[in-house]
Each structure stands twice: as C-alpha cells, then as structure tokens.
Specification:
Chains A, B, C, D: InterPro entries: ArAA_b-elim_lyase/Thr_aldolase, PyrdxlP-dep_Trfase, PyrdxlP-dep_Trfase_major, PyrdxlP-dep_Trfase_small. 4 copies of one chain form a homotetramer. Helix content of chain A is about 40%, strand content about 15%.
Chain lengths: ~325, ~325, ~325, ~325
C-alpha cells in the first residue's frame, strides 16, 4: 500500500464519471457551459463574489496567484519550507519575472504576524533592497498543520496594515477545512485572503485546481497570464467538470475527511514518534533506516524525510482496512 | 453540426478508455510506468532515438521547444500568421524571457528558405539588432497547407548553414502526415527538424501533446523548464496513456485521415470558393455575410475569417453523413 | 568631418565643466545635492510637476518608461522603424519581461491616430491575443521628422480614449523643440504624454538622459526598476550635473538649434536628393555608391542607408564652416 | 570627513584627466580606439587572453556575469550577505530571468568548498528543485576580508568537479590584490575564476567597471546582453579611457593601497572593537549609539551597521592626516 504521496492516488470514481460525462462537443477553452458555471458555483461555496480559474497544477495556480500580487521587483514572504520555495523549480521566479521569495522560519512550516513583521523590519525601505508586496501561506502546511481562521485573520491584518497581498496555497485546503470544521469562507475571504489556490488533484482529482480570486476584477489579468503560460487548455470543459463534481454535495470535504481519518489511525499508533501534530493527511515520524526497511519489506511505501525521519501521506482512497495494517506495523516496530 | 474548431471536438473513445485504464495508483509526475514507456514508443515511431515530454497544450509545447533553441536575446523566424505570433498571447515572449519573433510572409502561411534568407539578410550582424537563432514552421500550416519532406529539408539545410535551430509546430501534424503519406521521420528528423510539437488534442485527445526532441540530450533541460512552467502534472500517467493509445495501431493517423476526408468533401462542394488548397482539415472559403447567415440558420457553426471569408474545420468525429449536408448547403448557396 | 552620428560627437565644454565641478565628495547614488535638484528644475522647464530620473542611455530610458506603462502580457504600439524595435537588441522585451511591440507603418516613421486605431481594431479582445496598453512615438522621428503639438495631442486623445499610456522617445527631443518653437510642455504634458525619454547624449552630453514622468507617483516604482537594471550609478552626481547644466540657460536648445541649422545647410544644397523633409538634424538623401565613394574620398563620413541612400547627421559642434564644404560637395556631385 | 562609503569618494584627478582627454570625435559605442585597446591591455595585466566589457555599475557587471554562467532555471551559490543578494534590488533575478540565489553562511561573508558542498548536498537532483550552476564570491568580501589565491583555487576545484561556473565580484578587487601582494592572475584565472567584475568606481573611477572574461568566447553573448540591458553607452570611449588610465602605471593598485593603509590606521586605533579582521578598506567596529553620536559630533560620517556596530570605509583620497583624527577620536572614546 502506498503512502508516498496523495499525488499518486487514483482519481475518484465520481470525478472519472464527470470527465466521461463532459465528453461532448462544446466551445473550446473556457467558453463551454461547464466553465461558465464555475464563478457562480464557487461564489456560493465561499459566500462571496469570486472569480475562478481552472488550472492543471498547483505550481501554476500558486505562481499565477503571485503574479497578481507582486511586481517583478518586489518580494513574497513565505516559509523557508514552503512548496513555492522548495519544490517548484523556481517557478515563482519564472512567473513573476524574478520577484524574490523572502523566507521566514516557524514551527511546522507556519508563519505568524511576528515572523512576517520581523522579516520586514530588516528590509531597508530604499531601492537597494527588494520590498515585500505579498505573503504566501500554505494551509494545511507542508508539515500537515492547519492555520485556524483567527491565525489567518491575524496575518490578514498585518497584510492590510502593510499593504501586502495575501495568498493561500491550498494544495490540501480540503484537508484543512475538514479538520477545522469551519466554512471555506471563514479561513479565506473573511480572514483577508486575496487569492486561494484550491487544490483538488491531491484530493481525488485528475488535473484540475481552482484558482479562486476574492476580488473578481483581479482575475481578468490572470486569465491573460494563464493563456500566456500555456495553461488555457482547449478542452477546458474536462477541468471544469472536475471542479463542479467536487463541490457538488461536498465530495471535496468527504474525500478530505477520509484522508484525515486515515492519517489519525496512523498517528494514534505511534504518538511518541510524531515530529509534528497530525492535523491533516500527512504524518511525519521518527523512523530509523532499519525501521524504514522493515516497513518497506512489509509492502508499505513512503518518503524518507532526511535522516531518521519519514513522511507518510494518506489519501481519499485509504479506507480503515488499508491503513490499519500500517498502523499496526509501526506500533510493532 | 460544429465546424468551428477541432479543439472543440470530443475525445476519441479509445483515448477515454486509455484514461480510464490509467486510473490506478502509480508514482507521481512522470515517474509512472506509462510515462517511462514514451521514449521507446516514439523512438520506434520516428525510427530515431528521441526523448518525449508530455505537456497539456500546444502553446506550452511550442514555447518550451523555443526555449531549447534560443537565448533571451535572440530571435525566432516564423510566419506572420503563425500561431506562436498571433494566438498565444505572447507566450513565446514569456517562456523565452523576451526573445523576438521575426516575421516573414508567404502564401498559405508557409515560409521558404528564400524568405528566411531574405529576412536574415536585413539584420545587421551587430549587437544593436536581435540575431536569429531558430526557425519555427507549422505543419500543417495555419491555412491548412502541408510542407512536403523536401520543403522541410530545404529549410533544414538553410538552418544548418546559418546555425539556426528548426522547430515544427505540429498541432495538426497527424493531418499533415496523413496527407503526405510519408513516414513521420521523413518530414521531421530526416529533414533537419530539431524539436516537434506533436499535437494530439485537436486530433481526438483530451489534454496531452508530445514534445519530441530528436536530440534527447536537449530534453534534459526542457524537463526543468516544464516543471518551472507549472506543466509537470502530478498524475502524468493520464497524459502518457493518451499518447501511447494514440500511437498504438496508428489511431493518430486514422483520426487525421477521417478529418482530412471530411474536409475534402466540403472542398469538393465549392472549389471556386476556396481561398487556399485544402491539404489537411481546414477549409477557408469566400463567404458573404448573408451566405454565412444562411449556413448558420441551417445549424452549421464556423469561424468568420475577416470580412467575406470563413474558416471551417473538420475533425476526427465528422463522418461522411455529418459533412455531406454542409457540403450540399454550400453548393446550394 | 564626421556626419556619421550625433552619438559620436564630442561632449560640450560646458558639460565637461559641469562634470569637473561635480567632483567633490557627496552622498552616493541619487542622494546628492545635484540629483535632488532635478525634480524642481525640470518641473520649472515643463511648467508641470514632474519627477525626473537620470539614466545613462536612451535604450534604458525608453525601456524603463515602457515598464511603467505595460504589464508583461501586454503590448506597445510603435512604428516599424522605431528605435525600440530596430536598434535596441530586444531591450524592450527584456525590460518588460516579454511585452510585445506592435508595429504600424507610416511615412517618415510617424504614426497617427488612424494607424494606431487600425492596428488595435485587428486585435481580438480575447486572451489569445496580446492587448495594447501603450503607444510609443519618437520625436524627432528616426527619419528626422517632427511631431507638432497638435499631432501629439491627437495621439494623446486616442490613448486616453482607449486607456493606453503614451511614451515619447525624445532621443532628439531638443532638435524637435528647436524646430517647433513651442515650449517643451506643448508637445508633451499638454499633449497627453505620460513619460518622456529626454535625450541629452546626442545633444552634447556624456552619459546622462532624463526620464521625465509627468505623473511623479509613477516614478517611484521606476526608481526600483532602475536599480534592478543596474542603472543606479553610485556617483550619480555626475549625471545630475550634466542635466542641470543643459537646462541652465537653455544650453540644450542652443545645441539643438546649431545642429538643426547645420542640417538645413546640407538640405538646401540638394533639395532634389532628399528622401524626407529635413526637420531636425538628420538628412536622408539619394546617393549612389559612386557618389558616396566620392564624398568619402573628400573626407566626409556618413552612414549608408540601404542601397542608393545615405544618412547624414549633424551635431551641436558642426559650425557653418564645417558643414558648407559637405554641402558644396553634394551640390557638385 | 566622510567614511560613509568609497562610492561617495571623488574621482581621481588622473581619471578626470583621462576623461577630458577622451573628448574628441570618435566612433560611437565601443567601436572607438580606446575601447578597442581594452582586451589587449587587460590580457597583459592578467597574463591571459581575456575579453573585457566596460560597464557603468557593479550591479550590472555582476548580473551580466551571472547570465553567462546560469540558465533561468538554475541557481547561483553565494553568501547570505553577498551584495547580489542583499543590495541589488533583485537585479540578478531580473538579469537571469529568475535564476535563484542559493545562500550559504560563513564568517566574514566568506564561503568555502565545504559550505558550497553542504548546500549542494541538500538539493535533490530532480526537476522539482533548482540545481546550482555557478558560485559567486566577493573579493574583498562585504566584511572587508580577502580570499587568498589558495582559497579561491579550492573553490575553483569544487566548481570544476561539479561543473559550476565561478564568478568573482571584485567591487573592491584592487583592495584585495593590494593586500595579497599577488598578481591579479593568481587570485582569478589561475584559481579557476571564469568571470571577474573588476571594480574601479569605488577605487577612484567615475562610471566604469570592467567585466573580465577569462574565456573570451563567453564575452560574445555578453555583449548582446549588455546592449539589451541598455548598458552600451554611445560614448563608451569615456569609460574605456578610465579603465586604461587605471591600469596604466598601476593607478588602481596605488589607490587601493592608499585606502587600505588608511583603514589600517583606524584598525590599529581600536583593535578591541573590531568585528572582523581589517584586510581591505572596510572597518567594522563595535560602537554604541552614544559613541556614534560623539564621533558624528566631531564631524565624522559613517554607516550604522545594525545596533551597536558601525561600518567605516576608507577610500583612495584619505591621506594619513585625514584619517588620524578619526583614529584618535575612536581611541579616545
């Protein structure tokens, strides 16, 4: 059983069905009937007038979002272990034509108004230094922690105060909301988020993420940038179909809950091994090389996280009976 | 019946099946078993050692290709009506960090060694002017004409002579090869093409194009650029599955032949209206506004091509019985 | 005697003196006393509140100006023979991160509201095509013609109407104003120009051009971009000194008048050879290869302008007695 | 007396004279007789066949150098306090179209083969992470320390081994060589440096730095990039004149020695206050706010370096009698 990444999980059957159902002739690009329904559907979900752009990857979603918030000569404050810094091959530099990522530290890959403020206070306000224009946070974080609405709101406040845009990388946004039990709006628009990369691929989708602009006007330029980045698929109806299927009857939440529940089963099996609280669908544990080898010999696959640690990721398709054997195996180490 | 664009056509059932079959757990990105088979499969098709990168759009394929051939301070010679110049929202400028498209004219959107040579002869070889480093041609062209192997080879020769890379935008490569009756290699690797954007989406695919590098080493850097452009999908297996299904038993050729045959039916109905020879699946005809209205009132959809002209595009799913009514209606105007 | 380019002319003695006088210790970059005087001095000259940025080259001035007016995915309308298109090695693409130059034709390298309007009418207002966001004109033009205030104002009107920024490349702005006999404001701020590259180097300067922003707020971001482009010289006082010396007692106008007068002497010697009216300091004449050889054998240097034509450029240092021999020689051909 | 920055110092009289002497008509750009002498003159100085490009600022020199060594999707290893990271407003990101600066720590802003190796070992060799392609060091460093030839050579070795280019930011190269007593070649070409930004402006120049390519072929592309960045001044002879005057009779070394000697006088006055060894012309000292106020009240100007510290910079024009009063004042605190 694979716990390597939720990226590797299968596509949910309802999503496959939605894709199959979308296979008829329709206008190309995003002029089709399904794409045209997105703004309304997501506006309802977020209880806010939003504009939504489908896009194939989280990297592209994040980077398009950043181009809406910073000019090439400006900077984006993010965590030192943020996906945009560590795992996107410099894509933010490409999309923003060279804007700078400005790194802060923080437990569990979380940043706070204090760390943001401290970083900015080190920047001389002159033309020799890049000035920050945005903050990007990841919810759930790269270590599987969740920002609560009030934590996001506190960041939203400092962004307002210092005229910084606020982006949320929600590659695992569903997992965060499932844990929080709040509404999607509570942790985004109501908390000052300007743009959300709302991830679906890790949550059972095939190739569709939603870039959600809480100021619809901002999306107008982003649509040009999406085209310019080669991300305006000609058969966009297949992406729109996925997004609509996900928010229909809360499939996105159900899938996220399933993944989170699976993670808890593992977490409970080895509380003393946990490197971070398990608040979403990622479990980081202490694991020696020989213990890792033992687990692998039993058929479990996962990611080594530096020396002596491992990352296990659950996904929507992990049922209790899939996960329990791993939990047992870890407990038995 | 829609003749608006092959972009709007449905996905071929075999491709839908291949996508469905790919829906199992596998390694993310392009580490999966299907993606790993691409180089070998396409090397066989092209009778040449090639490296293949899947990518979701033709725009991204074209632009990635160009970044392999030019530096930001250099230029790409292409036709004034080339897709990269006219219809990609400046994507080449984005991908290449500002390289210049250098435009030549030519009947039917075709360029020749003469037009390339003439253009280059107007460039002063000093640092004040952008120097050309590549040529990009489209086969079949934006007006549905086809470059024959010897025409491409003549361009390949001038490229060799002047140390220019040669890119082929093959958004309708299948249609071209179907018409030519040659092998894929005859009109690419044997003719001096360095990189081919091999299009499948207009030919019945969902979201997978193949970027074919005839020098596999060149693909190594392109893989970084694909990631950096947000085009490394995490579930790449669904793209690889499409490409493999297309070249299995020549589905790509069968589809292209069907589209071409449908185009011929229309072309034969109105030879005196044709603005360009019909060599692939696009038909450009003289059509007055009132004639266009008549056709539309009969349920036919198509693209106005400036005043007094129209573009009709056939696709793999247009059977004779779908097309004949349009042919009749045009003949009856 | 050289009539090759005003770029090659010596620096005016008053400018050399101003440079020598600036050689004392002062704050680096543009914090020095001289740089700090620029805004006020130019605001007086332009009878308008302006912000002025010194910069070493016209290419950098033009490109910085464009970055203030267009986003990377947008376009700039300019003449097909504009310096930014032809002679800056793609610098606009570099500075704007890939914005597109959109070319129009027009006698004497001039553009009109009609040609701008015609070009824009060919652009589909959708994301597949680059949308224009600015117009750039050159005054005096690359062929030595001068835009009159009402011509600029007409362009300013269409720019207002279509929400386009208006940039003026004034590499030979002094020559234009000297010919027009208007105030600098008449042909810029009062006519709708947003940013002016005010050239001094061709007019007797060493390495200082003034980028004049008629909306001072716009200059704030440009200052970051100047630094980012490596154009914030640490001893900026030497550039500021030149600019101040130029506008003190109208040295810039005197120099331009001298150059223009010299040009008229040549023009009058060969009215039938003129390819363009001579309105500034450039003379384009019909000249066969053997005639060119004759002039060169007499010690006159100039630029061949394609086959059968030549460009002669006068400069501030050409006195009547320097130019008359050339005029005589041409008349005697 | 100002010890704020060597950037603020006057231009040396011999340089002013060379500039004055260059004020005659000559070909524009770098076609003039002085510019044409640079390669030979610097090849003699470096005992190596080099190509030299004049350029107006250190920022532009550094960034042009980096574009010769890295592609947009690659990275440059440098010190966390390197000028390119801290003080150039993101210029490297602009020039390289988004390449990443990869930061290492190290006493006195020095980096070592170990810190480079350690950093690279943390990079996964896959497309998700930016791969390093170059190392940039500053000699003398931002803290006034000097890399010895064997230290540079050790870095050169690891660069060779890992196929990384090696750039030296020599904004204060003269000060480093003056301290080392070695030849310029010992600490550059013989030690594996590929490109050197050889600074003259901080050492008594006006606006000319030399970008020295130890592989002349590499300079060919850089010349296009210089033009494209708006750095090809039309009256380049004034820059070439400065560079030639500097290396004539070792003016650059004399000036650097004078600055270094002045720094030693201050250093010796307060050995217990030194935060770093004084090996060039910068002195970093512990200095409380009230002590700083005292010095300023005595007429000495300098830069606060965070809380409780100050940076003092000497320059070529500081004679013993200019510096001794400051040394005395510090000793008397």
């Amino acid at each position: 059983m694979r716990f390597f990444s939720d990226n590797a999980a299968p596509v949910h059957p309802k999503i496959m069905q939605a894709i199959a159902d979308a296979n008829s002739v329709d206008t190309a690009y995003d002029g089709d009937a399904l794409s045209q329904r997105l703004d309304a559907a997501f506006s309802e979900l977020f209880e806010h007038d939003v504009a939504v752009i489908w896009i194939s990857t989280g990297t592209a979603a994040n980077c398009l979002a950043l181009t809406s918030l910073v000019q090439p000569h400006q900077g984006v404050v993010c965590h030192r272990e943020a996906h945009i810094e560590v795992d996107e091959c410099g894509a933010p530099g490409f999309y923003t034509s060279g804007a700078k990522l400005m790194l802060v530290d923080g437990e569990g890959a979380k940043i706070t108004p204090e760390t943001v403020g401290d970083l900015i206070s080190t920047i001389r306000p002159d033309v020799h230094q890049v000035q920050a224009a945005a903050v990007s946070i990841t919810n759930a974080t790269e270590y599987g922690l969740v920002y609560r609405p009030e934590e996001v709101a506190a960041l939203g406040d400092i962004c307002d105060e210092r005229k910084l845009g606020l982006h949320m990388d929600g590659a695992r946004f569903g997992n965060a909301v499932a844990t929080l039990g709040c509404t999607p709006a509570d942790v985004t628009s109501r908390a000052g988020v300007d743009v959300l990369s709302f991830g679906f691929v890790k949550n059972g989708g095939m190739n569709a993420e939603a870039l959600v602009y809480f100021d619809p006007a901002m999306a107008d330029e982003a649509r040009y940038r999406r085209k310019r980045a080669g991300h305006l698929l000609s058969k966009g109806r297949f992406l729109a179909a996925q997004l609509l299927a996900f928010i229909d009857q809360d499939l996105w939440l159900d899938n996220a809950r399933a993944a989170n529940a699976a993670a808890q089963i593992i977490a409970e099996a080895a509380p003393e091994r946990l490197l971070h609280p398990v608040e979403a669908n990622e479990i980081f544990i202490r694991l020696s090389a020989s213990e890792a080898a033992t687990l692998r010999s039993l058929g479990f696959d996962f990611y080594d996280w530096g020396e002596g640690s491992a990352r296990l990721v659950t996904s929507w398709h992990h049922r209790e009976e899939d996960v329990q054997p791993l939990a047992n195996a870890i407990a038995a180490l």
